[in-house]
Predict the structure.
Amino acid sequence: EKQAVLKNVEDQLNALNAKLDEVAARKKSLEDNIELCEKKLVRAEKLIGGLGGENVRWTERCEELTELLSKTPGNVLLASGIVAYFGPFTLQFRDTILVDWREKCASQNIETSDNATLDVILGDPVSIRSWKMAGMPVDGFSVDKAII
């Protein structure tokens, strides 16, 4: 009978030890999860802090693009005229005509950019830079001719 009681107590002890191991494993898993969540929280705070500064830059860029969009029809009109008519003329004469065209656009309430030139409107800065590195003269006249 004492053997049966001892066996019963040993079985209970083994069951409790198994449960203790299970609870210890669950505790370890939860501690690991807490540590992982803390690391994620630190990274998220850094990311949010970094993006907070981007908000100002993005807002400014949005305003720039909105203004550029409102001037796109006038800029395209100027670029069309440049492509169609500027071919044989000198740089000085081109500049004079461009100023005149901007004034005419303004008189018709057509907005244009102050720096509306062919390279600004139709040019790709990366392509222009590669042309210059390949030996093209760096003056605006050459860039315009290359774009046309």
Remarks:
- The chain has a mean pLDDT of 89.
- Residues 2-85 form the longest helix (84 residues).
- Helices lie at 2-85, 91-107, 118-121, 125-133, 140-147.
- The CA atoms of residues 43 and 49 lie 10 Å apart.
